[in-house]
UniProtKB/TrEMBL annotation:
GO terms for cellular component: plasma membrane. This is Phosphate transport system permease protein PstA. Keywords: Cell membrane, Membrane, Transmembrane, Transmembrane helix, Transport. It holds the Pfam family BPD_transp_1. Residues 62-280 form the ABC transmembrane type-1 domain. GO terms for biological process: phosphate ion transmembrane transport. The gene is pstA. The chain crosses the membrane at residues 12-34, 66-87, 99-123, 129-148, 178-198, 258-280. Its main location: membrane. It is found in: Cell membrane. It is a multi-pass membrane protein. It comes from Lentilactobacillus hilgardii (strain ATCC 8290 / DSM 20176 / CCUG 30140 / JCM 1155 / KCTC 3500 / NBRC 15886 / NCIMB 8040 / NRRL B-1843 / 9). One of its GO terms (molecular function) is phosphate transmembrane transporter activity. Belongs to the binding-protein-dependent transport system permease family. CysTW subfamily. PANTHER family: ABC TRANSPORTER PERMEASE PROTEIN YQGI-RELATED, PHOSPHATE TRANSPORT SYSTEM PERMEASE PROTEIN PSTA-RELATED.
Amino acid sequence: MNSKAANNVATGVIYLLVTAVVGILVFLLGYILVTGIPHVSMHFLTSAAQSFKAGGGIRDQLFNSLYLLVLTLIISFPIALGSGIYLSEYAPNNWFTSLIRTAIEVLSSLPSVVVGLFGYLVFVIKFDVGFSILAGAIALTFFNLPLLTRSIEESLEDVPDLQREAGLSLGLSRWKTITGIVFPAALPGILTGIILSAGRVFGEAAALIYTAGQSAPIVSYSNWNPFSPTSFLNPMRPAETLAVHIWKVNTEGVTPDALQISSGASAVLIVVILLFNLGARYLGNWMFKKMTAAK
């Protein structure tokens, strides 16, 4: 076989594999959306879940997922930002830096159920936090930190060194150069990483089963006092998220319309994650054009 024929065969195999992967992805997404969207309605999105009768919704589970996501980002983003800046701008190329990067890679490869068990043993039991939104957010912080740190570090490293040199040549300090020149230039990539990690956190279930709990107590959405046990803003209450709810209704088998609820909830989960990913692409492109005057 000559080189031209070998190239055509290899190209054909690559296209075949890509088509197979895209086809499987489209089939899965299409199946979830086609079977789930008909069960999604305003009543479904705004009513409370039911345990032993049909007609329940996902109002509390959807809110719990969003609340847990916001709390996780509030905890994890400052840590990831500081780590990313250190690794990109200050860390010397030695064994200690290599050890930090290795630890980040190991942490990113941990199964989410292991992170959940760690959170259960340490925060739920050892520190007596109990099944709560706070325990779930701390567990998801360990789950989210590696991806977010690497995303911030790579976004900062993508900024050309000429911009750093220009800032230093003007007499700016190293920290002022980072905060005034490098960070704004890397902001589109950083925001993209935040939104992508948010989609990953939003769909997590295994880690939350052991930390946030599997129950959704009735809370008052008119009570804005975060220290009140009945307040929807109370971070110490147990909270069943949307992904956990999908797993729960399919395993318990006590809800008459469990199939319809899980199908509708799965469709909502997929749509929200797709919006996160599309939003990351759009926001990143918009900020890149805004800050670089690119067309």
